[in-house]
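Dock S-adenosylmethionine; give full complex structure.
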Amino acid sequence: MSGDIWDSHAGWWQRQFTDGVDPEYQDQILPLVDDLTLGFDKILDVGCGEGQVTRSLSTKPSQVVGVDPSWRQVLKAQERSSGETYVQASAALLPFETEAFDAAIACLVFEHITEMSEAIAEVARILKPGGRFVFLLNHPLLQTPGSGWVEDYTSETPSQYWRIGQYLVEQETIEEVELGVKISFVHRPLSVYLNSLAESGLILKRMLEPAPPESFLERNDAYRSARNIPRLLVLVCEKQ
Ligand SMILES: C[S@@+](CC[C@H](N)C(=O)[O-])C[C@H]1O[C@@H](n2cnc3c(N)ncnc32)[C@H](O)[C@@H]1O
């Protein structure tokens, strides 16, 4: 289902967020993921989209595989490939042998997956013991649907704060991100992700909450007041 949505809107994603046009990817996500996968040989990028994360890794391209259920994303990834391999598949049923990879990445993907625990179990299955999972999410606490910067001038002492939405409610929402482009997002509390990772034998080693990069704030001035509210959460896990 989410593969179909992403197939219909592959062009929107590719135009707005890839090929160097998005400052958060360029200045934060791509260097961070590369840094966190350095030294690992065989790497799988789960939900690779058109392959921008896969392509940017320092690991030899022949050792890197990207997988995505959307044909239009996979075809674009193959067209832009510099030697990596791309395969069409869902994270919930990965067409790879058990313990085939040294590291796996999922970058802003699990927010679009309904079969979350099956997909995490699959990531654990294809990793070797001691393998690394680099897991990037829109920050589940601070970017809960309904969150945002509030400037409240209704009382004598005006206040400004970051409002948190209904954090504990697991829910799927459809957002119209651009006229005619409706994308589904699944919100889950952080504990749901961490418990699912632990149940699959993926143990948290590091957690990063980077501030938005300056280049993002330059383009999104409205976020400047909230510059100390992270947009991104990065979990670095190790397969037991
Ligand atoms: C926000 S894009 C991120 C793409 C890429 N990881 C990146 O950072 O450039 C989300 C991607 O998740 C993919 N996706 C949706 N459902 C999926 C599933 N069940 N398994 C794997 N990927 C999925 C979509 O096709 C889309 O390419």
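Observed: The CA atoms of residues 50 and 207 lie 26 Å apart.
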